[in-house]
Target: methylmalonate-semialdehyde dehydrogenase (CoA acylating)
Amino acid sequence: MSDANFISPVPLYVSGEFIHSSSTHWIEVTNPATNSVIANVPCATEREIDAAIASAAETFETWREVAVPERARLMLSYQQLLKEYHDELAAILSSETGKNFADAKGDVWRGIEVVEQAANIASLMMGETVENVAADIDSYSLIQPLGVCCGITPFNFPAMIPLWMFPMAIAAGNTFVLKPSEQVPLTAMRLAELFELAGAPKGVLQIVHGGKKQVDYLLAHPDIRTISFVGSVPVARHIYQTGTHHLKRVQAFAGAKNHMVVMPDANMGQVVNHLVGSSVGAAGQRCMAISVAVLVGNANEIIPDLKVAMKKVKPGPSNNSEAAYGPLISRAAKQRVLQLIEQGKQQGAVCEVDGSNCTVAGYPDGNWLGPTLFSGVTTDMAIYQQEIFGPVLVCIAVDSLDEAITLINTNPYGNGTSIFTACGAAARKFQHRIQVGQVGVNVPIPVPLPFFSFTGWRGSFYGDLHAYGKQAVRFYTETKTVTARWFDEDIPDGPNMTINLR
Model:
């Protein structure tokens, strides 16, 4: 692709400068509502990636010595700018993801909340001290930054997920190289501009672009200490296996199949509303979406009401305030979901609501998919076994809470789950026995606020320390333990005391 074909070429951000890449390989960025090209993003060359990492490594030597309160004040300034430019960021985000404006604003806001937590970095960097661990010997621990950290982020949350990563890492004293999704690079670039405007020194944040080749180069680079990733299961496995093979600390957040258990005593009006919103919101393109309703006993009787409610929900462009959600990210993503819907029908599930032939007036080329509801689903069907990542909800009927718990614990994923019930004992049994990292009780999407951590389990996460909260600080730092002894006879006294008045 020649320079003559560029539509708003996306720059790299290296050493505090927005630079035009010398790459000969560029990827088109499209608006999912129209599939029109809105930008071109480069696949950075190895020399450009080396330059970004070298700049980050050099900057680390001075940034690590910056006082913790000063790093916290940078984050305070940054969160204020993010709030000031909230709507602008949401508009950029909508243009490249297709999200409706309210959803895009939510994406930005959840990132702002993490930046606010990063401003609390001083209390999160505290070590521990024990006096007199032996005679006249004290021990204490220091929390110190690691060096150059790297983040590889997905298309579905182009503000929130980068803001999960680089503010916490940089506040802890590291420098950071971000590789945003090549499908949605524009939001990340604006985040970098605002970070610079907030007073971030040149070199603490770098942004490079590209696909698998660029990711693999980052994973193997000897100067990168940590890798943070959010994305699909196969890619998360590759990131984790490759990164750890190169002796890096890795956190890789993978896919999910999130279940909502509905007990017969639940408030069914609330259940229907929350099932619809949590399954089709953001076109189902979120790792915490509820994609399976587990209906216990008589709760199966809500399917007709659920069917009516799902039919009322309509997708549309971001400038339509009445649209419940936007398009899927790409034609390929839509085709994959359509194939899974067809498989569900062929394997015997009842398609109560079929959104396969959805159209939106004025946007004939968008990646539209209407809400889709299946009942009579069994665990051997593809629509249950695979993460659909579209506005599709499948319903499974079970006879008891124990059966529901076994069903969920047998599933390979463990990202999020919820139970809707009026019975405290049922809720307590569920939250205690369920092998899922994030549990909601009468809450459909239990994403923790940033003073906790995002804690997916089992096949939804590869690594040991999770995103944001206290675990993120531990992920981006190392603990140094000091054991010190001072001798009383060395204390200067009287005429032998030396006083330095400088």
